[in-house]
Model the fold of this input.
Amino acid sequence: MAEIDTGGGKKVSTKVDMTPMVDLGFLLITFFMLTTTMSKPKTMEINMPDKTEDKKKDKIEVKESHTLTLLLDKDNKIFWYRGMLKPDKSLDELTKTDFKTIRKTLLDLKKEIGSVVNSKTKKTEWAIVVVIKLTDRAKYRNMVDILDEMNITDIQKYAIVDLAEADEDYLARYLDREKGGGSSKEDKKEK
Amino acid sequence: MPKIKIKRKSVSLDMTAMCDVAFLLLSFFMLTTTFKPEEPLPVDTPSSVSEIPMPDKDHVIISIGRKGEVFFGVDGTQSRIKILERVAEKYKVPLTKAQKEQFSTLPAHGVPIRQLPAFLDLPVDQRSKVVKKGIPVDTNLEKNELRDWVISTIGEGRKMRYVIKGDGAASYKTVKWVIATMQDLNINRFNLITSLERAPTTTTEKK
Done:
């Protein structure tokens, strides 16, 4: 019977050189780390007013003094006025601002207008209602930014509304005057 | 002078532990990874402080490119085929089985339906070279193909979330049309994809 030779032969080391394996391991890690998408994209939810049921349902009554209308134009410009737009509305009531100062404006106006008790939920909430109107010259970024400002300033009542012709007119008249008249009252007021 | 004998130390380390760690990490990344789907058009999303994560499934992504190209994408390969069939039927565009198969692999597309069969016949590597104008969105409902794509997703039976992925530099005009199209179909809830921006610590930081 043949004997299994265990002792006499040369002992082969069981240690394997792991370096290439480690190299390979880290190479693959790097690959996966770079291709992986760890964080999911964030989203912002937005509810648009229902067009079809708008006529059927009675609209929520909003006091004129509580409304603030923002007009967003090109070059990240924001114009705002309070209340309703009547044909005889003075151009002085329109204020020009931008995204840097809009937050302060919103916060100031929110405090100025104050809070009311919601008749349905019996909770006190800010009375301010912001109507956002974007001109076709505005960028999509402006829309997201202004919605973001609403979130930051904690204004719950806001809506994106189509720009009415009257608004467009009003804005055009304001810009015309600005071009002609040089520094307007609004600029001084802001400072 | 006596010679100083330097003890030779072996430079080879025991790599086993390191190897273990490497492969542990490797398996972690392999399991958690989800490959970025190939983006048919580059979109630079604006940033916001919103932290709502994007819905995993049952979403319809409408991408709007810098120049206002509109792209449409749905999740689920089976859904894609069904949706394509419905739209193709409406426009009487004949599609072969292979073309449908090809379509189901696309995460999003932005070709008018009449040009779609020709586009799907192209080899994959040549598709990116085709100039894509996007799906026609128009105030004129007859020419609004996006409307038909969206209608066919409603028939899918799933509760779809409509996600708008717009480029920050895109004109609001296009976005307005896209939203108007959806509102016309009584879809009033949207998710806008934004990249995360650090929220201001206090809301009255700027004076």
